Amino acid sequence: MTAMTHAPELFREAVAALRAVRARPEVTLEAVRPPQRLAPWSYALSCEVTGPADVLASGRLVLLHDPDGQDAWNGVLRMVTYVRAELDHELATDPFLPAVGWSWLTDALEVSGASYTSLGGTVTETSSARFGDIAGPARTDDLEVRASWTPVDGALGPHGEAFCQLMASVVGLPPVGVAVFGQRQGS
Questions:
Q1: Looking at the DSSP assignment, which residues form a beta bridge with residue 31?
Q2: Which end of the chain is more exposed for a tag (fewer CB within 10 A), N or C?
């Protein structure tokens, strides 16, 4: 990212809004080096979260800004997300998993109040089997959500909150303030 002092005002406001997002305790956000060739201005956050059944997920949220706009974006800002999570085999074989994975994103955007257009993406399930001397479990199943959308303005706080909610949903965290059945709070 080029020095923020020379960045367009809209981009500076958008980055400040993303930096102000306060994730729930289970979600770790960290600014990372953004992609350099997708737009004149970019900013990225990396995320890691572990769910109640030790489900691990990692993700990235990237803000792109092209003051001249890009036709495919339908605007001058673009949010891009990539999320990858480990799954248990039973969940990985659910035929509705891709639709559910997509709904985690769309529900998070709606609940957070993020205003956007031009949403598109993919949900991919992968299964891998290890053979020979490769360390690790014999089989792994993963879910990937890749999506992008165009914010209607630089108020990106709700977009950052939606990303955090997506990450929480992917690993099976309940909404904030709701305990998982069977968990007890100490007195």
A1: 45
A2: C
The amino acid present at 101, given as its one-letter code, is G
Tell me the per-residue pLDDT of 73-100, one tens digit each, with 9 for 90 and over: 999 999 999 999 988 767 777 778 899 9
Q: How many CB atoms lie within 10 A of CB 135?
A: 5
- Element of type H or E holding 26: none
All residues at 6 or more sequence positions from 75 whose CB lies less than 8 Å from its CB, including other chains? 69, 117, 118, 150, 151, 152
Structure tokens at 47: 């995320």
pTM across the whole model: 0.87
What is the rounded distance in angstroms from the CA atom of residue 122 to the CA atom of residue 82?
10
Q: Are 105 and 145 in contact (CB under 8 A)?
A: yes
Specify the pairing of strand 56-70 against strand 41-50.
Answer: antiparallel
- What six digits make up the tokens of 19? 């930096």
Q: How many helices (H) and strands (E) does the chain have?
A: 4, 6
CB atoms near residue 116 (< 10 Å): 20
> Bridge partners of 121?
147
Rounded to whole angstroms, the Cα distance separating 126 from 64 reads 28
pLDDT in tens, 113-137: 999 999 999 999 888 887 887 776 6
Q: Is 18 exposed, middle or buried (0-12, 13-18, 19+ CB in 10 A)?
A: buried
| Residue 66: both structure tokens together | 């092209």
